[in-house]
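Below is the data:
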Amino acid sequence: MMTDRNGLIRLIFDRLHGFFGPQNWWPADTPFEVIVGAILTQNTSWKNVARAVANLRDHGLLSFEALCAVPEPLLAELIRSSGYYNQKARKLKAFCRHVCETGHAGLDGFLAQDTDTLRSELLRIRGVGPETADSIVLYAAHKPSFVVDTYTHRVFSRHGWVQESPSYDELRGFFMDCLEPDVGLFQELHALLVRTGHLFCRKTPRCGGCPLEGLRAGTAAG
């Protein structure tokens, strides 16, 4: 039986999908490229990440084996456009070392773990927080773990659907507890919320013309 929360999320999805159309996010050719992008996108825009990823591709470094072998100082220079490039180079190398040292059958074996085990292991890697871990689980491993980001928080708190300052796990649980574990739905809904936040639910909101305009807690859905 569909809960009220489930119905709300489905309504939000239908409105956003009808307005924006399918997003087909994450833009990457391989699971490893997703992982690289998920780490590089911390504290920067996707435009800057795309430049760094393209630079790695041009140098033949968009594979797990190649990135394991490249010296960290060179890696840092190649991802300079992503910002905090020394820290992010360390994070990428830490991810590679973890996969190599934990006895998995390479990257494929690492990603083949069940959802909860994979997420827990990712969170033990230096520099991988909850949002990055869930991005890797959902988009690289194609397992159902909802990704919460600034835009998700902003859209849902401003409309009164969640408390003003929920923790990451509380907001993630809002979705995980009431939706079926559907990877395609999770991916599309996350991408649609990002698009909404980027265009309308900014730091200074642009509510006029937003597909969610008028849909607030306590108002009639329509």
